[in-house]
From TrEMBL:
The keyword Oxidoreductase applies. The keyword Oxidoreductase applies. Residues 19-126 form the Aldehyde oxidase/xanthine dehydrogenase a/b hammerhead domain. It comes from Pseudonocardia lutea. It comes from the Bacteria. Keywords: Molybdenum, Oxidoreductase. This is Xanthine dehydrogenase family protein molybdopterin-binding subunit.
Length: 770
């Protein structure tokens, strides 16, 4: 029997999803369901003077209208201690789209119409919709009870690196901006709460059902067994669905009051102003380096825009940015610090990569700046600074941040096997001499990021039970298997990848393995899916559970074969006594496992085992990407002509799915580099409140991807897998921006701020001459 791990099998999930047979929260129909709609603030910062609900409450079919005053004792939304966000605005609104009141009606559209009839009187307050405005001398605190809009400051090194920077032969100061992005999952936030005498059931679009169950139980003072959270098919998460949203709490409370199921379905425009945004960091960087381009010291001051309410997943993101600020380079001294600032905008939280893409963008842009300053090839600067394979595992200066096995130079070498770099440079020079030809730019990104998130001490800081993951495997009497996992997928392909792992360990047919996930009533305690932990942590737990089942089955087989267990081996789906033709199939063993009179005394019935995997360290996926762009001289439009990606995620479970993960992540990275940005006017009004204004990529905006893998297994988990879900989004933005800057470098251009829109690039061309 050949190994399933490493096989490019088609995903088990796809037939149902591609034929419209998936089950999403809005597909769940409960008898008597009523619908909730929000009254949202149209002002970014204002005091609430009054809320008149009388007209809305009188509309036929409306079951009630509630404001903050009507929900006395309702727990606040999960947020940062001391800055708890109420589920409905109490005295002030902090951003456009903040919830002021809710309406529940028998029909979704009726509820929305009634919400329009609620009259709110406001007194406008000064708006601070940018970091600059929120940190100005005359800025007033947005959150009552805080001293200023800087709500968190932290220095993450013992030195400010000034001595090393001053002593360096060269020193550069660079300002970089990682713009605000929206997650835009296919499925917005949706939830359905049903509070009955037996307890509370919530169907929700969440990446962390058990964590949500635990929090809701605590909020409402219920035993955990009386709260059930179900995350069925979830249409994309990208980190944004790891946050807790007010509607989860409100639908539960209103279901309790009305004694009917209450459903909320977010509209797309609501999603763009209510679901947490991502990125939104500014970096002030100083780098010291020598004549050969060796990096000697790095100082990074990070400013994180938190939006109107600090989200528990967002306020500390600069910590991860700081930890990864050295990238894959050996820099003697790194001095990061950060501040998190509240502004009158949508809250900011996790978004694919969550803090690490910001770090990767920063250090890769710094390397290109150093190369340009010295007149060196950017690849040569990278080679001179790489941490070498023989230095792995590599302990960074940050406690607990230890890079696992990797080959950064090897990834770049493999990339250049696919890219004829000298030929591209020749082509670039030829085009520069031809005014009718588009300019050519070549950009590189050699990166490392965090994956396999845990261990427990890290996750405890965010309120999770732990950083481990769980898996249960039950072998049925016909030899088929059922896996239950604590992770909850939203597109990662758990059903396929975990079945491949179990098929290998138990040597049973891949098609006879099914997966159960996302239901806290049927699945053992789990943590959730984020931080590229599905395979490294969840998959390792699956592997451990499968090994426990196999070992128990081997003991039964040995008893059946009247052999010593050490002489029994599993070959092609059957247990065989070495050196003989005596064997029993896995199905026979599964049946025997339920016959107590044919088992040794004291032997537990069944083949049903649970295992946990607690990561002792993070894993560190890495790779090398190359982007080639064409820049139209007349319009400034940037076209990605070629994109080549070499990734090292350790063990590849399924090459087809690995390629898909890279495609999706790179698409988001290219989109950030060229298209996407959430912007606000000075009055805090969102300028990208619909998909007409917020540009997501279509097929014509994206190139054909060329992908390859370098496999350097990690020793930090039994699978040797590092994770891959966030690598494309971590690597791509700087590869594209480096390419755009490279295309314009002969004009003296050293930086182009994301997104590199046609208008922005056209203006640079006009100012500098094309």
């Amino acid at each position: 029997m050949g190994s399933m791990v490493g096989a490019a099998v088609v995903r088990k999930e796809d037939p149902a999803l591609l034929t419209g047979r998936g089950t999403y929260v809005d597909d769940v129909r409960l008898p008597g369901t009523v619908h909730m709609a929000y009254v949202r603030s149209y002002l970014a910062h204002a005091r609430i003077l009054s809320v008149d609900t009388a007209e809305a409450a009188a509309v036929p079919g409306v079951l009630g209208v509630w404001t903050n005053a009507d929900l006395e004792g309702l727990p606040p939304n999960r947020s940062v201690p001391g800055m708890e966000r109420p589920c409905l605005a109490k005295d002030r609104v902090h951003f456009v789209g903040e919830c002021v009141a809710v309406v529940v009606a028998t029909d979704r559209y009726l509820a929305a119409d009634a919400a329009e009839a609620v009259l709110v009187e406001y007194e406008e307050l000064p708006v601070m919709a940018s970091i600059a405005a929120a940190t100005a001398e005359d800025a007033v605190p947005i959150i009552e009870g805080t001293a200023s809009n800087v709500v968190l400051e932290q220095v993450l090194s013992a030195t400010d690196a000034e001595e090393e920077l001053a002593a360096a032969p060269h020193r550069l100061a660079i300002h970089l901006r990682n713009q605000r992005c929206a997650a835009v999952p296919m499925e917005p936030t949706v939830c359905l709460s049903d509070w009955q005498n037996s307890g509370l059931t919530i169907y929700a679009t969440t990446q962390t059902p058990h964590h949500m169950r635990n929090e809701m139980a605590q909020m409402f003072g219920l035993p955990q067994q009386e709260v059930r959270v179900v995350a069925p098919d979830v249409g994309g998460g990208f980190g944004a669905k790891a946050s807790c949203y007010p509607e989860f709490i409100l639908t539960a409370e209103l279901s309790r009051r009305l004694r009917r199921p209450v459903k909320f379905v977010e509209t797309r425009s609501e999603n763009l102003t209510s679901m947490v945004h991502g990125r939104a960091q500014e970096h002030d960087v100083e780098v010291g380096f020598d004549d050969d381009g060796r990096l000697l010291a790095l100082r990074v001051r990070i400013t994180q825009d938190c939006g109107g309410w600090p989200d528990a997943t967002g306020i500390g993101l600069p910590t991860l940015t700081s930890f990864m600020s050295g990238g894959c380079y050996k820099i003697p001294v790194i001095a990061p610090s950060f501040r998190s600032v509240v502004t009158n905008t949508t809250p900011v939280g996790s978004y694919r990569g969550a803090g690490r893409p910001e770090a990767s963008f920063m250090i890769e842009r710094v390397v290109d700046h150093v190369a340009a300053e010295l007149g060196l090839d950017p690849l040569e600067v990278r080679r001179r600074n790489f941490v070498q394979p023989g230095e792995m595992p590599f302990a960074t200066q940050f406690e607990g941040i230890v890079y696992d096995e990797a080959d950064f130079p090897g990834a770049l070498d493999k990339l250049l096997e696919h890219v004829d770099y000298p030929l591209l440079r020749k082509e670039q020079a030829t085009r520069r001499d031809d005014p009718s030809a588009p300019l050519l730019g070549i950009g590189f990104s050699t990166f490392v990021e965090m994956g396999g998130f845990g261990p427990t001490p890290l996750f405890e800081q965010f309120g999770y039970v732990g950083g481990w993951e769980s898996a249960n495997i039950r072998l049925n009497v016909d030899g088929s298997a059922v896996i239950k996992v604590g992770t909850s997928p939203h597109g990662q392909g758990h059903q396929t990848a975990f079945a491949q792992i179990v098929a290998d360990e138990l040597q049973i047919d891949f098609d006879r393995i099914t997966l159960i996930h996302g239901d806290t009533a049927t699945v053992q305690e789990g943590i959730g899916t984020m931080g590229s932990r599905g395979v490294p942590v969840g998959g390792s737990a699956v592997m451990k559970a499968a090994i426990k089942v196999r070992d128990k089955a081997a003991r039964i087989a040995a008893h059946m074969l009247e052999a010593d267990q050490g002489d029994v081996e599993l070959v092609d789906g059957a247990f065989r006594v070495r050196g003989t033709d005596r064997s029993v199939g896995m199905g026979e063993v599964a049946v025997r496992a339920f016959k107590p009179h044919l088992l040794p005394d004291g032997f537990d019935l069944g083949l049903d085992e649970t295992a946990f995997h607690e990561p002792q360290n993070l894993s560190y996926p890495s790779g090398a990407h190359c982007c080639v762009v064409e820049v139209d001289r007349d319009t400034g439009k940037v076209r990605v002509a070629r994109y080549v990606a070499v990734d090292d995620c350790g063990t590849v479970i399924n090459p087809l799915m690995a390629k898909g993960q890279i495609h999706g992540g790179v698409a988001q990275g290219i989109a950030q580099a060229l298209l996407e940005e959430v912007t606000y006017g000075p009055d805090g009004q969102p300028l990208a409140g619909t998909l007409v204004d917020y540009t997501v990529p279509s097929a014509v905006d994206l190139p054909h991807y060329e992908t390859d893998h370098l496999v350097t297994k990690t020793s930090f988990n039994p699978l040797g897998a590092k994770g891959l879900g966030e690598s494309g989004a971590t690597a791509a933005p700087q590869a594209v921006v480096n390419a755009v800057v490279d295309a314009l470098s002969h004009l003296g251009v050293r930086d182009v701020e994301m997104p590199c829109t046609p208008q922005k690039v056209w203006r640079i061309l006009q100012q500098n001459g094309s």
